[in-house]
Amino acid sequence: MVPLTANHKVSRSSPPGPAKGYALEDFASCGNALDYVLLGDYPLADKWLTRSLAWNPKDSESQYYLGRTKYNENRFAEAVSAFEQCLKLDPKNVKAEDNLGLSFAGLGLNEEAATAYQTAIAWQSQLLVKNPGPYIDLGSLFLDENKTDVAISNLFQAVEISPRDSKAHELLGKAYARLDQLRKAQTELEKALDLSPQSTNLHCMLAPVYRKQGLTEKAKLEFDRCAAMHVNRFFAGASLSVKKFKRPRWKRLWRGGKEGQSSSPQRK
Q1: What local confidence, expressed as pLDDT, does residue 42 receive?
Q2: pLDDT in tens, 112-130
Q3: When you count CB atoms within 10 A of the terminal residue's CB, does the N or C end of the chain come out lower?
């Protein structure tokens, strides 16, 4: 994949194919599809990954990223299909099995999701380097089902595997707060905030934990930060929406005009 830089430009033209003298694997090296995944442009990532897989349906990595793309588009049934195909090509792929579980959860199939997470955990039981993802996702699922004790067990294992994973600390803090173990909740949420200082959610979670312990000043500070970050996010989102709405269609047509066409913008 071509690494993204500050001056990196992603082509929106058709991907090179065998007819232009490229081998099938050259599509992956051009980086278009995965660049779009990194940029969060999931419709275009979907398009390019689907086209890549039409040329090379045995590319397990493209199947995996197609699954991730479908998941981020909330097309969970299609994500399940992509991850299952990835696992046929690359059996015991822990990340694919974990994401299969996430896709099942997106469909509300919690039993199937739990089975997938547990399978991913079993597959890596003998590995020296483990992925914390299945433990985090299983812990999150158990929290949603009010199985707090077993959620803590899985989240604690995630923290042992990856102490700098803010999500694991965040969910542990949520679990301890639910059990009214406020000091432990505070410790975990503060660790998560140190790792992800721009997380609005963490400020909002810490505020009531401080308040319940009588830490009034700290609670007020976190409540204020929570409110301010929500306002900033709202206006940032509104600004982006306005810019997108106001983008003139004629500019796209003009820049893409063919020779012989008028270069004068025509508004419609």
Answers
A1: 82
A2: 999 999 999 999 999 999 9
A3: C
Torsion, CA 149, CA 153, CA 154, CA 159, rounded to 10:
130
Q: Which two tokens stand for residue 174?
A: 């949520």
For 28, the domain range is 17-124
- Residue 57 in any domain: the answer is yes
Indicate whether 118 belongs to any domain: yes
108 occurs within a structural domain: yes
Task: Assess whether pLDDT exceeds 80 at residue 267.
Answer: no
pLDDT of 150 reads 97
Reply yes or no on whether the pLDDT at 246 is more than 60. Answer: no
DSSP result, 193-248: HHH-TT-HHHHHHHHHHHHHTT-HHHHHHHHHHHHHHHHHHHHHHHHHHHHHHH--
CATH number, position 30 = 1.25.40.10
CA–CA gap between residue 261 and residue 268 (Å, rounded): 17
